[in-house]
Amino acid sequence: MAGTQKGINIKKVLSGLGVIIAFLILVCMIVCVHKFYKSYTSIEMIEGEESIGKKRSPDGRYEAQAYRNNGGATTDYAVLVVLSDLKNGTEKNIFWDYHCDYANMKWNSNDIIEINGIVLKVPDQVYDYRKNK
User: pTM for the full model?
Assistant: First the structure.
């Protein structure tokens, strides 16, 4: 058939576009839910407010910096301890306690720190009062 032209099928284009948009919305929702979940189940995202002390490990590799966080009039103080690895320049939140406004820190060895009676092997162990009740 000479002279017959094939046109663009608008319904197919819109259908395919709808699938792509639905997929992108789903991906965005998954990313948002993951970030929301992680922010409430991990101490990684917490930032220290008022510095209340620091202690360096006996070998000088690590430094533990304690912060007192004030949640406002309706919540109690909380303490965050951030571990700095002075050898490779990384930082990691290792201690998060609520109903607490001080940090009694003592290094028991080069990689064992005791914070308010909680003993942690750094850099791997983490104390989060919500999980370690």
Answer: 0.71
Residue 81: pLDDT band (50, 70, 90) is: very high
Which residue pairs, CB below 8 angstroms and at least 24 apart, start in 68-75?
68/101, 68/102, 68/103
- What whole-number distance in Å separates Cα of residue 99 and Cα of residue 97? 7
Location of structure tokens 């004030």: 70
DSSP string, the chain: -TT--PPP-HHHHHHHHHHHHHHHHHHHHHHHHHHHHHHHH-STT----EEEEEEE-TTSSEEEEEEEEE--TTS-EEEEEEEEETTTTEEEEEEEEES-----EEEEETTEEEETTEEEETTT--EETTT--
* pLDDT tens, position by position, 25-67: 888 888 877 776 666 667 788 888 999 999 999 999 999 999 9
